[in-house]
Every structure is written in structure tokens, then in C-alpha cells.
Specification:
Largest sheet of chain A: none
Largest sheet of chain B: 6 strands, mixed
Radius of gyration of chain A: 19 Å
Shape of chain B: globular
Order of helices and strands of chain B: EEEHEEHEHHHEHEHEEHEHEEHEHH
Largest interface: A-B, 23 and 30 residues
Bound molecules: adenosine-5'-triphosphate, magnesium ion
Distance between the termini of chain B: 44 Å
Strand order of the largest sheet of chain B: 6-7-8-3-9-10
Oligomer: heterodimer
Strand content of chain B: 25-35%
Radius of gyration of chain B: 23 Å
Number of helices of chain B: 12
């Protein structure tokens, strides 16, 4: 019991330290906030006008996909942050302290949620400007944002492991690009899954990014009336399916990352 | 008093490289133990294992009554570590860095703050304490990192090359701080590449090379082994050599070494510059014309040459290679 209290107390100290960094290096924040604006505008104006969705607005359809892709990409920060700490030797310091050994990773993943909160806020405002609206209720809208944050939090544990395995900022950026880009594209983020060729379609239907996007679309009320119901189970029960994935990812990657953390030493 | 740090047969390999090759060591409570060795000797590897950062391939170790491998958490409660490279958060201020460490040692909010302020004072960083560390000089970082190791006043301290990169004044200051610490009863294991530093601070020194213990003893024992201080006198003409030998004999604490071809006499002495001054006066009184004269202290390189027959640094500078030849010459003469 005491151990759990200590773990959260230590994680809070680490998270606070990471937040101070956000404050002291505002350049990062500017970039973090500008790129989602760019994404929303690009997709809204470049694709939004040229693809039509029967009975609805492609622009509104797109927004949930952009949100999902962007917050999942946000996990890169977790990997980069950990790699940076290893390179600077500060993880060695933490590992020599009588602190909870899980706290560094918990504190890191927790403070990175702040990036995603800010990112979502900025994207939502930009979305409103280009004509996106939540057609359901405020409550459902908030659940939608909560689901985005929860899945992104879970996903950041995968990047935490990558950061521990290869503590190099370049490798992490490339790895995240190579993994996250296809995973977020072979999904219903930008086109309805039904429009994809069979193999890709199956992948897209079971892809948790699709279920996340589908869930958020439903919660925001961004699915045009008359859209045929999805046939795949994950897309019929997107909230549950997304939460199962989030839980699974944490159950697998948090212990793996923690184990790896015990061995993390500065290379070279 | 028992041993606070003990290691038995530590082995650590990195592929082909054997970083530690069956290292044993024992450090008495309240003493300062100096681990002396050239680059790549295995100093950092040894410290990392003892501080629970690295798991050895074989061997075992106990620190402050706890087994390093089986109870790392208990070891961590009782140690402070300052690694070879400063482990600080660049974006936090000096105060925030120390406060964070204090909180992670679970000192509690106000005690942690107070301790951080106190240490900034001790290390002459009070003014810089409110600036982000990225604005610090190398020496300031080094001192702050050291302060980090002391936050919880742990009974056992590991300092990996604590004064590397410091200017002579900061080095002296730091030696003072370290001596005070030890006077309060901490046990300290420090690594260094400088015999002078180990000599100054350590009660016992272990010289390691390629992961093996090659000599151990008190600083005096080691220096005796290498020959201690000596005065080297080079005369202008060979005819002065006998008189120079006669004079130097009066100050020597051991046998003289003479190299006729180089017109040089080397006398082991004890007493440093004071003795040198007297010897110069005496040589002058005898009318010996000097070409060159110098007080030589044994360096790590001398220790190495004597103990291993090879130089401490494979790619030695010209200075060290000159040193080598003179010691070799002595050894063979
Ligand atoms: N992570 C690593 N991977 C591969 N080899 C390593 C690693 N760490 C250390 N070594 C090797 O182990 C040997 C001992 O290294 P160690 O860092 O312990 O030496 P050291 O005595 O601290 O040297 P220095 O004075 O340069 O700090 C060296 O040959 C080094 O190259
Ligand atoms: Mg080292």
C-alpha cells in the first residue's frame, strides 16, 4: 500500500519536473500547437472540399480522424523525452535513488498527456473555425475527448519502450513515423473503411485507430444520417473495443518498459 | 569497524572487452577508498555495479549491509552517487534540481528545500541557484552534481572522477568539502586518474588496470613502491657529476641514480620544495653549474610503469613518453 503511495508521490515529482521543462522551452510548445492547426487546415481545405460523403460534410467526418492521428503521434514525445533523459545521464541519477522505479515512466507518460490536452484544445478551436461542430451533447463531446486522451496515453507506453530500447531521438522520430503513419492511414481516419480493398479493409476494421475514430465520430455526432452501419464488430462497438485495446497496450507495454528501465544505462 | 563496501570477484564483459576481470575490494567504514586507473580501466563499471546501476556477469557485492544484487532498493537508501558525467536537468534551476532529488529521497517538502539551499551555500552556488543549469559552467555543474549526491547525507558515497574538468582552485575547494564529509563519518569510494588526488584524499588506494587489481595500499606504501618524490639534477659538464652526487647524497632518502651519459643525478627525497631549495643552495656553494633541475613527483604514469611495465595511456603525449624513458632508465641502471 505504502509502495503505491510512494510510487504516485514520486511520479508527481517527475511529472512536475517535466512540466517545468515545458514552461522553460516554449519553442517546443509552439511547434506542438502549430502543427495541429496546420493539419486541420490542410485536411479541411485540401481534402475536405474534394471528397464528398453522402448526406454529410467530409470536413466534419475528417476532424475525428485528424484528432486521433495527431494524439497518437503525440506519443513520440514520450519516447523522445525518455531517450533524452538517458542520453543526459539523468536516468542514471534516478536509478541510484531510493525512489519507486516505475515512477519515472509513470511521471513521464502522465506529463505528456498535457501536450495532448493542449493539442486537442487547439485543434478543436481550429475545427470550430473551419465549420466543425459537435452535434451531440457537451457531455458526449467530453467523453469523446476523454477517449482520445485515454488511448493516446496507453499508446505512449509503446513509445516509452522504444525510447528505452533505442535512446536516440532520430531513431524514435523515424520509428514513430514508420509505425504510426501507416497505422493511422490504414484506418477509417480519412476515408470510410468500406472504400478500402479487402485486405486493407479487414486490417482497417480491426485497427484500434479506426475504432477510436469511429467512437469519437459517434460521440461528436459527426456521422451523417443515412450512413450504412458498419459491419465489423469493432466498429459496431467502438468505445468498448478502443478501451480494451488501451487496457491491453498498457498491460503489455507498461511492464515491459518498466523491466527495461531497470537495465537502462547510458550508452557509450 | 567493519567493511561498508565489499565486492567479490566482479566480472563484467562488453562483448570482447573485459571491463572488470574478477575485482575484489573492501572499504572500511568511515574511510576514503581511492580507485585509481587510466581510461578504460573499469572504474566507472565498478562504481556502477556498486551503485546498483549495472548488473555484473558474475560476482557479488554488499554495500552498507545490503546485497547489491538482491536488495538494490535497500542499497539505494544508503548511498549517494555522483557519476563521471554530471546528471542534471538542464532546464531546471540548481535549486530545483536539488529539491527534486530531495523529494525523491522522500525528505518532505520543507526539509528538501532547506537542504537544497544549504548545499547550494556549501558549494558556492547560492547565487546561481535560481538560474537554469544550462547557463552553468562545467565546474558549476560538477559541483551541483556532487551536491546532488549529498542531499540525503547518505552514509556511503560514490564519486566517479569528482574533480575532472575543474580548475585548480575549484579542485582544492572540492577536496576541502570531501574531507569535511568524511570527517563526519561518511564512507567514500572515489575514482580518479590522478595519484595526487588519491594521495590527498584516500586512506587506501587500489590501482586497477584492465579490470584487475594491480596494487593496493596506503598512499605512502604506493609511493614508496614507485619511488616517491625525487630531485633530478642535470649538470653542465660531466666533471661536475661527482660533486653533484656527493651533494645530493646528503638530501637523498634512498639510493641515488646517476646517468653519466645524460649528466644527470636523481635523488629520492622527502620534504618537497623545502628540500629542493636547500639542495640548490648546497650545489651552488659547491660551485656546481646546473643545466636543469626539477622536483618530480610520482604520477599515475610512474605507478603504471612500475607496476605493469606499460604506460598508463596507450597514446601518451610527448611529456609522458619522456617520463617513461627516465623511469625505465632508472629501473635498469
Ligand atoms: N556500455 C558499454 N559498451 C561497451 N563497452 C563498454 C561499455 N561501458 C564500458 N565499456 C568498456 O569497458 C571498459 C571499462 O570502462 P569504464 O567506463 O569502466 O572505464 P573507466 O575506468 O571508468 O575509464 P575512464 O577513465 O575513461 O572513465 C572500457 O574498455 C570500455 O570501453
Ligand atoms: Mg569512467
Amino acid at each position: 500500500m505504502m509502495a503505491v503511495v510512494h510510487m504516485f508521490a514520486d511520479a508527481a515529482v517527475i511529472a512536475k519536473r517535466n512540466m517545468i521543462k515545458i514552461k522553460r522551452v516554449p519553442e517546443v510548445l509552439v511547434f506542438v500547437l502549430l502543427s495541429p492547426i496546420m493539419f486541420v487546415l490542410l485536411f479541411a481545405y485540401v481534402f475536405g472540399g474534394s471528397i464528398s460523403i453522402p448526406g454529410g460534410s467530409y470536413r466534419e467526418f475528417l476532424i475525428a480522424g485528424i484528432f486521433a492521428q495527431t494524439v497518437v503521434f503525440g506519443s513520440t514525445f514520450t519516447g523522445v523525452g525518455i531517450a533524452d533523459d538517458i542520453q543526459k545521464g539523468i536516468i542514471d541519477r534516478f536509478r541510484s535513488l531510493p525512489m519507486s522505479q516505475a515512477a519515472v515512466l509513470i511521471g513521464r507518460t502522465a506529463s505528456d498527456v498535457v501536450y495532448n490536452v493542449l493539442t486537442l484544445l487547439i485543434m478543436a478551436l481550429t475545427g470550430l473555425v473551419v465549420g466543425w461542430r459537435i452535434h451531440s451533447s457537451l457531455w458526449e463531446g467530453l467523453v469523446g475527448f476523454g477517449l482520445l486522451l485515454a488511448f493516446a496515453y496507453a499508446f505512449s507506453w509503446t513509445m516509452a519502450l522504444v525510447g528505452l530500447l533505442v535512446p536516440s531521438v532520430e531513431v524514435i522520430n523515424n520509428a514513430s513515423f514508420m509505425v504510426i503513419f501507416p497505422v493511422t492511414f490504414i484506418a477509417n481516419t480519412f476515408v470510410p473503411a468500406e472504400n478500402l480493398p479487402t485486405v486493407l479493409r479487414t486490417f482497417a476494421e480491426w485497427n484500434p485507430i479506426s475504432s477510436l475514430t469511429q467512437a469519437v465520430r459517434e460521440l461528436f455526432g459527426n456521422i451523417p444520417p443515412g450512413t450504412p452501419d458498419p459491419t465489423a464488430w469493432p466498429l459496431q462497438n467502438p468505445v468498448i473495443y478502443t478501451l480494451i485495446w488501451a487496457a491491453l497496450i498498457i498491460a503489455v507495454f507498461a511492464p515491459l518498459a518498466s523491466l527495461r528501465y531497470q537495465k537502462a544505462v547510458k550508452q557509450g | 569497524m567493519g567493511n561498508v563496501i565489499e565486492a567479490f570477484g566482479l566480472v563484467k564483459r562488453y562483448g570482447e572487452v573485459v571491463a572488470l576481470d574478477g575485482l575484489d575490494l573492501a572499504v572500511q567504514e568511515g574511510s576514503v577508498f581511492g580507485l585509481l586507473g587510466p581510461n578504460g580501466a573499469g572504474k566507472t563499471t565498478a562504481v556502477s555495479i556498486l551503485a546498483t546501476l549495472l548488473i555484473p556477469d558474475s560476482g557479488s557485492a554488499r554495500v552498507a549491509g545490503a546485497d547489491v544484487l538482491k536488495e538494490p532498493a535497500r542499497v539505494r537508501e544508503r548511498i549517494g552517487l555522483s557519476g563521471q558525467y554530471a546528471a542534471l536537468d538542464e532546464h531546471l534551476t540548481g535549486l530545483e534540481n536539488l529539491d527534486m532529488i530531495g523529494r525523491l529521497y522522500r525528505l518532505g517538502r520543507s526539509r528538501s528545500r532547506a537542504r537544497a539551499r544549504e548545499l547550494l551555500e556549501v558549494f558556492d552556488l547560492s547565487e546561481a541557484g535560481s538560474r537554469p543549469v544550462k547557463t552553468y559552467s562545467g565546474g558549476m555543474r560538477r559541483r551541483l552534481d556532487l551536491a546532488g549526491a549529498l542531499v540525503a547525507s547518505p552514509p556511503v558515497l560514490f564519486l566517479d572522477e569528482p574533480t575532472t574538468g575543474l580548475d585548480p582552485r575549484s579542485r582544492l575547494d572540492l577536496w576541502g568539502v570531501i574531507r569535511e564529509l568524511v570527517a563526519r563519518g561518511s564512507t567514500l569510494l572515489l575514482t580518479t586518474q590522478y595519484l595526487e588526488e588519491a594521495d590527498h584524499l584516500a586512506d587506501r588506494i587500489m590501482v586497477i588496470d584492465q579490470g584487475r587489481d594491480i596494487a593496493q595500499g596506503t598512499p605512502d606504501e604506493l609511493k614508496t613502491l614507485v619511488g616517491g618524490e625525487r630531485i633530478e639534477v642535470t649538470v653542465v659538464s660531466s666533471s661536475d657529476l661527482p660533486r653533484a652526487q656527493e651533494v645530493m647524497q646528503r638530501f637523498a632518502v634512498g639510493e641515488l641514480a646517476s646517468e653519466v651519459r645524460n649528466r644527470r643525478v636523481t635523488a629520492p627525497i622527502s620534504g618537497g620544495a623545502a628540500v629542493l631549495t636547500k639542495a640548490l643552495r648546497a650545489l651552488d656553494a659547491e660551485g656546481v653549474n646546473l643545466h636543469d633541475v626539477g622536483l618530480r613527483r610520482p604520477t599515475l604514469n610512474d605507478v603504471f610503469l612500475t607496476l605493469t611495465g606499460h604506460a598508463a595511456e596507450p597514446n601518451g603525449t610527448r611529456g609522458t613518453s619522456e617520463d617513461q624513458s627516465s623511469v625505465r632508465g632508472k629501473a635498469t641502471s
